[in-house]
Amino acid sequence: AGSMAAPTRRAVERRLRSFGTGAVLFYREPIEMVRAEGVWMEAADGRRYLDVYNNVPSVGHCHPRVVEAIRRQVGTLNVHTRYLNDVVDTYAERLLATFPDPIGNLVLTCTGSEANDIALRVAQAATGGTGFIVTETAYHGNTAAVTDVSPSSRPGRPLAPHVRTVPAPDLYRGAGADPGEGMAAAVAQAIADMERHGVRFAGIMVDTVFSSDGVHTDPEGLLAPVLATVHAHGGLFIADEVQPGFGRTGAALWGFERHGIVPDIVTLGKPMGNGFPMGGMALRPDLLAAFNAGDRYFNTFGGNPVAAAAGLAVLDVIRDEGLVENARIVGEHFRDGLREIANRHVVIGDVRGAGLFIGLEFVADREGKAPAPEVASAVINGLRERGVLIGAAGAYGNTLKIRPPLCFTRQDADRVVELCDDVLTEVAAG
Ligand code: PMP
């Protein structure tokens, strides 16, 4: 803290006075942000930063159509969800139309955590089970029940008795000849173990791009045998689309579509309202009916008319600006650029991803693949100095999570690749 500029030090102290020492801030010297537009953010000192990290304002920061939709609705009507309202029903119909049959009902929430929490409750009600499977470094949110299925929130602590984990399909570190069958076998083993301990299986919850496990998007189709195994054992497949959803993979609106599967339950969040707090659960109507037979769910703010207006504008912008296609084209170009500089920088172990969700993994040596989180950290800080914001993920914290707004251009991608090249040259020089 001693080396910080005085205004930053005062702003940090002010933050900690109110929020305590658990307050999470980005960077050793945090940045005070004042405004943003498109793919750019602006700090209090006037510096501009290219946003390559933030997948919430997914159609672009302060997109005028989303801003205007929110502004108009908040000045017209904003009530809880116990009244009929055309905007709310129009949004529900538009959103549900994006899902394959038989997904046909929707519950709207304010956050992804709430969506996952209600998904766990539905799976319990529909199966009579309590046991859940997640991946080893999964994050699914912050409620008590969801924290139990978020091993990354409690590193090193034992899992709750009703939870089992399976490895994410890590092709780089050897997921076997058939990663899908491998994951399905691990799931079957986890189910057998839980049932041996008297826990009945309720379902699996997976982020379909395994973002907190380090971004594992391939091979396409990998989740099909996993889903078959889950169903064979009477469980439900919950696809957590908080990270890949709303077009980020460049292949389709939903990450699970790359795997040719139809989940039982799909949960949504982050980009859903482009920053307006929104989450949701789309599911088979029979599952919601099974839940409603003995349980009730009410959310005061979830899916209110302002949220619905924001959500509708997001769907409109994704369609009208061709953002799924843009994510595919720019994402491919971005990965090509990173692979090209990997020829010069041996610390780059792997470049992977789908659309504009890219993982860039750093290693100490390519043979042993020893994780190099210190390189990831040096690159994150080096890029920040060069006006680019980016973060890391994965069990070892050595994988950059590249996740810009979907309106990113090839030129934006080229700029990041060039600056990465520059930072890595500096890092190599010591
Ligand atoms: N699921 C996944 C995969 C997430 O990444 C997150 C948030 N990082 C959540 C759920 C929780 O969403 P929220 O923070 O909106 O509660």
Automatic annotation (TrEMBL):
The keyword Amino-acid biosynthesis does not apply. Gene3D superfamilies: Aspartate Aminotransferase, domain 1 (3.90.1150.10), Type I PLP-dependent aspartate aminotransferase-like (Major domain) (3.40.640.10). Its cofactor is pyridoxal 5'-phosphate. Coiled coil: none annotated. It comes from the Bacteria. Pfam families: Aminotran_3 (PF00202). Keywords: Pyridoxal phosphate. The keyword Transmembrane does not apply. Belongs to the class-III pyridoxal-phosphate-dependent aminotransferase family. This is 4-aminobutyrate aminotransferase-like enzyme. The lineage of its organism: Bacteria, Pseudomonadati, Pseudomonadota, Alphaproteobacteria, Hyphomicrobiales.
